[in-house]
Amino acid sequence: MSSTLLAAGLLCLPLALAQSGVVKPLVQDCSPNIPGVVCINKYASVMPYHFFRNNPNVTTDITLGQTSVPNDTSWARVESADFLVFDQQKAMQILGPKPTNEFVFKISKAVHEAPVYVPAQNKLYMSEHWSQLAPPTGYLPQLVVDLNANPPTLSEYLSDPPVYAPNGGTFHKGLIYWGASGGSNSIGGMEQRVGVITLDPLTNKTNVLLNNYYGHYFNTVDDLVVDACGDVWFTDPQYSWFTGLTDTPPQLEAASYRFRPSTGEVSIVDDSILQPNGIALSPDGKYVYISDTGMIDGTLSPEYPNIHGVTLNYTSKRTIYKFDLTDNGTHITGKRPIWLSQDWVPDGLKVARNGYVLTGAGKGVDIMDDRGHMIARVQTNYTVQNFAWTGKNWTDFWIMGQGGVSKVTWNLQGPELV
């Protein structure tokens, strides 16, 4: 190397060592007229060194806002914001000029799932269950939010017969469809197995549609959705055994299914996902979305069949996959990942009326377009399990999880369930 080139290289060395490309500031107001909404510039794709985000453990979730970024003071705004905006143009359209994010009810640290809005009653039903078999006195009560009251009220109720640990839910032709995730020889004096159960909210009567696969118990029935033909698509991970919601070790692999109530036939549609969790259909009926929360797993050992408990591997699956519907809408193909959860795991999963995909992920709800392009995030002070739209225009958005229930008002419409 010539002395001239060597000298030039030495002159460039300090510049090469200096950090370049840093986005400044990382966080700023999207609009001075909309408090609580902050924009993340260029997705914070280049942070100033030294930044660090720790991995969570079984009991603690490390949020995006808790990432240590000491050399950009604007990052402190992430933790306290109501909404995080990543795509400003699309986000401000769905948030509207006056979005709100209100913490409405403080509730127990139990799992709160299966939110279903009943338009005829203007009530929001949801489940409540602990990670253990129900107490000897009977079933844990479910919850209902009465939206006719001002302010809304929260109360307990039991259906007839009661449903043990609904974990996924939807509304279809006047009935609530629940994925019952708990099973035992005796819960409150009667046997119940994991399956699909309907509730008529006007009579409070329940009816079992499905409770086995050719004699085998299902594992969990975590989430479900009903298509235009009346078929029920559901996921069946193995979480109920890990968390003590069933008295029987898994008899089936973790998989996703399509169930046709008119004939009773159950068809497996996918067994490639480690722990399938949320499931949703696109508004045009062309695509199915399924989330894999295999980051949270458990012990299955034939040598120790009574072992319960969950394990956590943050480098394992926390992914949403998109599938194409095929075979006249009866099966799925073309699996591809569209979202890797940036907080915790993608738990609740639903599709808005415009095709945007929403998922509960740690302490918030992520909003993406149908290709997984991150648009915005609603933030909460509790771990989110699920959510549902309510109201005449389907723009009131209720979020629930371990410790809280929140209400968001915005312009993003939910699917009009009939």
TrEMBL record:
> Has the keyword Ribonucleoprotein been applied to this entry?
no
- Please, which domain of life does this record's source organism belong to? Eukaryota
> Which N-terminal residues, if any, form the signal peptide?
1-18
What keywords are assigned to this protein? Answer: Signal
What Gene3D superfamilies does the database record attribute to this sequence? TolB, C-terminal domain
Q: Name one Pfam family in it.
A: SGL
Q: What range(s) does the SMP-30/Gluconolactonase/LRE-like region domain occupy?
A: 189-293
Kindly indicate whether the keyword Signal belongs to this entry: yes
Q: What is this protein called?
A: SMP-30/Gluconolactonase/LRE-like region domain-containing protein
